[in-house]
Amino acid sequence: MTAYDAIVLAGGAAKRLGGADKPAVRVGGRPLLDRVLAACPDAGTTVVVGDRRPTARAVTWAREVPAGGGPLAALGAGVRHTSAERVLVLSADLPFLGADTVAALLAASAREGVEGALCSDEDGRDQPLVAVYRGEPLRRELACLAAEHGGLAGLPLRLLTRELTLCRVAAGPLASFDCDTWEDIASARARIREHGTVLDEWITAVKEELGIDLDVDTGLLLDLARDAAHGVARPAAPLTTFLVGYAAAKASGEGGGPEAVAEAARRATALALRWADENGTP
């Protein structure tokens, strides 16, 4: 992964949300801001431009002057705290942004002859707040704009992007989905409950809530829960999966590990199957 810093713009009046604190609005039980921060955990420095609030991981705080001065002023405030060759720039209202999109932007920004890469949505519209910019050209153009206009407050982002040589990365259908209205929030909340994604969303939320950084085979655990429920009794499913986690942590030290979980799950599954085989056996 290319070294990079990240700037997340979390200010703004959120007028279409009735002035609500948009970065703190929850989707899938997690604030929008934390969902965005989860997409760039390996950033060298992560700067959040906006009012201070609790976050799932440590960040550097900054504020544009004047407050509410718009995205370019916020970007100018955030970039002062960065030093990496590349700067990831995101808005704080992207519930479905993933690390895969960040990686694609970083890779595209490394191409020869470009000064950055930004997402292009399904309709071909540029998304300058889902982008990676090379640090030196970004700082140069921000300084030029500030000098030309007497500051950055109130200036549109297109004044920056039109001066940079940027390539486009076609985002997935949801990567650049942002939440500007309560209808958008409702849509995002409904999407994460869809059958194909709800388990991944739930497991991610639980791991973040509990401070667990562990990738395990959830299919293996679900199979174990099924076998315990069918072969023993329905209440055995949650109790067995809890005991597997406890055994894995005990076996491999604090926090456990994916291999320990898999081994404990295999042994518990074998026991559940042996238990089931005894049904009706004299």
From TrEMBL:
<dbReference type="InterPro" id="IPR025877">
    <property type="entry name" value="MobA-like_NTP_Trfase"/>
</dbReference>
<feature type="domain" description="MobA-like NTP transferase">
    <location>
        <begin position="6"/>
        <end position="151"/>
    </location>
</feature>
<protein>
    <submittedName>
        <fullName>Molybdenum cofactor guanylyltransferase</fullName>
    </submittedName>
</protein>
<dbReference type="InterPro" id="IPR013482">
    <property type="entry name" value="Molybde_CF_guanTrfase"/>
</dbReference>
<keyword id="KW-0460">Magnesium</keyword>
<keyword id="KW-0501">Molybdenum cofactor biosynthesis</keyword>
<keyword id="KW-0548">Nucleotidyltransferase</keyword>
<keyword id="KW-0963">Cytoplasm</keyword>
<keyword id="KW-0547">Nucleotide-binding</keyword>
<dbReference type="InterPro" id="IPR029044">
    <property type="entry name" value="Nucleotide-diphossugar_trans"/>
</dbReference>
<dbReference type="InterPro" id="IPR045598">
    <property type="entry name" value="DUF6457"/>
</dbReference>
<feature type="domain" description="DUF6457">
    <location>
        <begin position="195"/>
        <end position="278"/>
    </location>
</feature>
<dbReference type="Pfam" id="PF20058">
    <property type="entry name" value="DUF6457"/>
</dbReference>
<dbReference type="GO" id="GO:0016779">
    <property type="term" value="F:nucleotidyltransferase activity"/>
</dbReference>
<keyword id="KW-0342">GTP-binding</keyword>
<keyword id="KW-0479">Metal-binding</keyword>
<dbReference type="Pfam" id="PF12804">
    <property type="entry name" value="NTP_transf_3"/>
</dbReference>
<keyword id="KW-0808">Transferase</keyword>
